[in-house]
Amino acid sequence: MLRFLGRRLVSMVFVLFSISVLSFLIFFATPGVDPAARIAGKNADQATLRAVRKDFGLDKPLPVRYAVMMEKLFITRDLTSYVNRGAKVIPQVTQAAPVTLSLVLGAAVIWVILSIAMGLLAAVFRGKPIDTAVMIVGLIGISMPVFWLGEVVNLLTQSRFHNTAVFSWVPPLGYTPFTQSPFGWFKSLFFPWLTLSILYIGIYARVLRSALVEAQEEDYVRTARAKGLTERRVMMRHALRTSLIAFVSLFGLDFGALVGGGALLTEVVFGLHGVGKLTFDSLQNLDLPVILATVIYAAFFVVAANAVVDLLYAWLDPRVRRA
Amino acid sequence: MPEPLLEVVDLNVSFRTEAGLVRAVEGLSLSVGLGEVVGIVGESGSGKTVSMMAVMRLIRDPNAIVEGRVLLRGRDLMQLSQREMREVRGGEIAMIFQDPMTALTPVYTVGWQIAEQLRAHGSVSRRAARNRTVELLAEVGIPNASRRVDQYPHEFSGGMRQRVMIAMALSCSPSLLIADEPTTALDVTIQAQILELMKTLQREHGSSILLITHDMGVVSDLAERVVVMYAGGVVEVGAKSDVFRDPQHPYTWGLLGSIPRVGRPRVRRLAAIPGQPPSPLAAAAGCRFAPRCRHRFEQCAVRPELLPRVAPERADACHLEPAVRSLLRLEKESA
Amino acid sequence: MTEAFADTAPVRAAEPATVGASPWALARRRLLRNRVAMVMAGVLALIVAACLCAPLYAAHVAHTEPFRSHLDATTLVNGKRVPVMEQSSTGLGLGVTPIGPTWDPRHYFLGADDQGRDVAARLLYGGRNSLLIGAASALITCFFATSIGIVAGFFGGFVDGILSRALDVVWAFPVYLLAISLSTVLIAKGFAVGPFRLESGSLFLPIAIIGLVYIPYVARPIRGEVLSLRQREFVEAAIGLGASTWRLLWSDVLRNVITTAIVFFPLMLAIDMLTEAALSFLSIGVQEPNASWGTIILDGQGLLYTRPAVALAPGIAIAVTVLALNVLGDGVRDALDPRAKLRRTD
């Protein structure tokens, strides 16, 4: 077990390193693009450009520049934004993280519960109308652009039906920290949760349904029925349990990607200042230090999620464990 | 004659498909007595497995049509409610399947799975179920049963897994065990062990066994009576020794003739039965075997019924005169 | 969001051809019999046709130039001549609100946007770009992913090691972030390497970027399939097929891989269209003066509460197109792997 963990750690470090190199190359070494102009922002003067070049060692060879960047990011942690003059980058990320976390966790709870319920329904009543209905709902869910769905939700809750009893409680766009007001926190996140989860419900309900349908044809399910077990037990204990393996590993990867900032479209549309929105704003301003920081932060979560999923896989599927 | 434990009367299983109605089983009738071992023999596609799945009412295909009666101690299983049938499955009739590698749920320990069956058929405490499970595992010859009860199926070899399956099947002391090709997926040496085990257990528990196989060797080892199936129907029935010594149906001749026999002069080629089994779609009117039969004649255009023609305890579905049959068979064997 | 279509398990090795008909002919027949998929194919054809007719619509039906501002224009509504940008107290803060949907194809069918342009005409033009970008990037993805997958799976060893690592690294970057990063850097100033130049407004940039980032998504299943096929075939070949082994192997592998690529294509098209819309919405996809459904949604954002049609129409267009692609993609998969169909519908 320890050897497995050790190997995973080495692999994680390797991947993170590769990603940092890749990001660095994209932002600082793309041919035809001047890094100093990028860092200093759109309207920098000559003096600032010179200062940037000196500070970031842009006249030095590539590997040195990379080292300087990494040092500022991880060791001295004093990477500052050149657009918001002097604002430190790392704190911006750490402040944005709880927002993203709240959004993603809430949405995840909703989508996991609903997609399992829907996937089960569709598989148990395979071929009947409810199966088709569930699948259609799922299809619609994955066909709508999530940011557009968010806009539509806003249109309804903030504008068109805002004055009706149904939606009058919806607060204006923005995030209320849990520590400030739990109920406010909940209200500000309710519709973002729903919007984000619709996409994933569509995906996961379909995944689970097809895994369950496959499981139903498996030999061990036939054995379970021959044992005289109730259909409910056969489905829940035998078919579902095995199907969840694929479900969980997929979930881990998506969750990791979302926490890392993959929910950026939802955050932008609902005015939530999470990591995703931070990334987006910094992109709009071409605030490269911030972009670099957020990208590496995001990658870290994806990589960590991968590792966790591998571990989970071993826990869920005894066949994968090595004695 | 005492009432048979299981009596299948005129079982039909058909499937509606895009290409038409597929008749997998047609007019199957057989019986199994108390404590009797009956072997069902036939090649792939003869309907052996489908008929047994129908007996257990395990066919879930909405396009399946199952007709006929299945009497267990006089009670027609086809008329039972779902709940009543669930009590029968695993309780009075147990079934083991062909491929032990995939027949057990991979995410639970074998002990858990056996205990699950025990507790489904009676209120047994967890502790009692576990103890009984360990006993069962030991009974089927799993060494170190008290430790292995907490292991997962993938930690067992194929032969061991089949033993686990047998233990699970016998856990609720069923009166009938249906074994669908239990040894086909195993090595020859393991096969012999499993068959020995089944023989022993059958003697000790007194359960009846319906053994499905395409292997005449397995039949001769274990069965008392033999049912020969072809293309969805029964073509010959009788005591094993009778059928082996004096087979009546040309298909049985072919089956037996294709076994290399020890002690007889070595033939240059094993006799294969020429031709293919008929497609279950093309419901021919006459004898199903006629297209492949060397001895067919005009009468064969009428489907022969399964009737006792030679002796009261034997039946066959062939129009050939019994007197002529032994001659024809010997002529075939010396060819 | 990128694991959107993760239930596209790779198509298993095709069954041996039924006597008489090639597997492609069989698959085509199965697909044609799938009514729902055929309806969706029809819907797609309609959408594509409508978008292709964009210039015709703009010139001959709506009589408008959808790429120029028309802030002072007027139009006919119910016989009355009204300004396209109406005076109002709410709206853009300039005191003007664009005209809403008139439901008259000749005069601002879906209303005007903040520049007084005909939304319906722009919708059709935008559709051309969205569809083009989606299709081109899906082609790029499928082509390169298939090549990489074959090379990695076939040759194995060192080559496979390098390629797999490269795929892993690219894929470890969250897909949208990678696309966004590349787009930000390249779209603003364009891309120049030696004699090779891409202007920042070129449509080829989003095509290339979106095509690139999804390569690992398709390459990994294909590589897996090649690997398992190779293993299986080698075992059989070991029993002795002779010199023709390589050719048989090659043709078998190729056939199966192409089947998988075909199954992936419509699904990648759908994913790519959604990705393009997101990038354009974030201003780093299609650039002015070009339009796409994503840019129109962005245009509509400022008008969302007053003239929602501007934002709603392109979103609905995307949703319908992607839905049709998904259903068609499922149909293609069912047609090519009948075992999957049997399992699903019983």
**What percentage of amino acids of chain B are in beta strands?**
15-25%
Give the ordered list of helices and strands of chain C: HHHEEEEHHHEEHHHHHH
Q: Total number of helical segments of chain B?
A: 11
Distance between the termini of chain B: 41 Å
CATH class of the domain at 124-292 in chain C: Mainly Alpha
Q: What structural category characterises the helix and strand content of chain C?
A: mainly alpha
The CATH topology of the domain at 124-292 in chain C is: MetI-like fold
The biggest beta sheet of chain B is recorded as: 7 strands, mixed
Shape descriptor of chain B: globular
Helix-residue proportion of chain B: 25-40%
- Rg result of chain C: 24 Å
The helix content of chain C is 55-70%
Query: Could you give the order of the helices and strands of chain B?
Result: EEEHEEHEHHHHEHEHEEHHEH
Shape of chain C: elongated
Total beta strands of chain C: 6
Structural class of chain B, please? Answer: alpha/beta
Low-confidence stretches of chain C: 1-18, 340-346
Number of helices of chain C: 12
What composes the largest sheet of chain C?
2 strands, antiparallel
Unreliable sequence segments of chain B = none
Describe the structure in your own words.
The complex is a heterotrimer of chains A (323), B (335) and C (346). Chain A has helices at 2-28, 35-40, 46-55, 62-75, 89-124, 129-143, 146-160, 182-216, 219-226, 231-262, 264-270, 275-284, 288-316. By secondary structure, chain A is mostly helical. In chain A, 45% of the residues are buried. Chain B is α/β, with parallel strands linked by helices and 335 residues long. Chain B has a seven-stranded mixed beta sheet, sandwiched between helices. The radius of gyration of chain B is 21 Å and the shape is globular. The mean pLDDT of chain B is 87. By secondary structure, chain C is mainly alpha-helical. Chain C has a domain at 124-292: MetI-like fold (Orthogonal Bundle), CATH 1.10.3720. Chain C has a two-stranded antiparallel sheet. A two-stranded antiparallel ribbon of chain C has the order 3-4. In chain C, strands 5-6 form a two-stranded antiparallel ribbon. Classes of the chains: A mainly alpha (323), B alpha/beta (335), C mainly alpha (346). The interface between A and C is large, with 62 and 58 residues.
